[in-house]
Amino acid sequence: MKSFIKNRSPLFWTLVMGFGLMSIMLTFSPNRKEIDPKQLPWHAQALPNGKVQALGIHIPEDTLEQVMKLYGKDVEIRLFSNKDESDKSLEAYFPVIYIDSIKAALAVILQADDKTLNQLYDRGIETTVTQTGQRQVKLSGTDIPKVLKFHVAAVTLIPKKNLTYRAIEKRFGKPAQVIKEPETKIERWWYPQHALELIFDPEGPEALQFSPLFSQKP
Description:
- The chain is an alpha+beta fold.
- It has helices at 10-25, 64-71, 114-122, 144-147, 165-172, and strands at 45-46, 52-54, 57-59, 76-81, 89-99, 102-110, 126-129, 135-138, 152-159, 177-181, 186-191, 196-200, 207-210.
- The protein has one domain.
- The strands form two sheets. A ten-stranded antiparallel beta sheet has the order 7-8-4-5-6-9-13-12-11-10, with helices on both faces. It has a three-stranded antiparallel beta sheet with strand order 1-2-3, with no helix packed on it.
């Protein structure tokens, strides 16, 4: 089974390091409208056609623009690469979202081919280095409207509150497979029916990663 944990997105680490502070700063939640039950994480489904419905998002059919209709316009779009400018990825980060009573952050990986990523990178207006040593590029304002039309490849939900094994099993049932990493103490629970890899990290918040990759057999 392929896994994101061995090569987590740069935005994931930004999310982990910044979400604790954000949770403290945002102590009051806005009025929330009634949601579609399909937005609840445990209602995610791996569909027979190889696609995924998770958090109210249809992967890979929906665009970033459609995700913003669900979770608001408070979003940061960045392009990441290794220090040598390899392995580029385009990601959108929603610092705070609400799914019913769940307060969380959301990271969205967007589909883009290498040519497009390189062009966006070259037109970027600002480059900074993340705490993990990777490059983070702020996109040109003229490119943002185009990126809103890009399709979703995968999504990662980071709940504010720590998840317990009991709570997870109550909502999702027993995982099909559990992989433990002795060096990092990280556990990865795999739910192919939900196209979900759930990560328990002792040094950071839990992460629910939804992707068509996780509906495949190991």
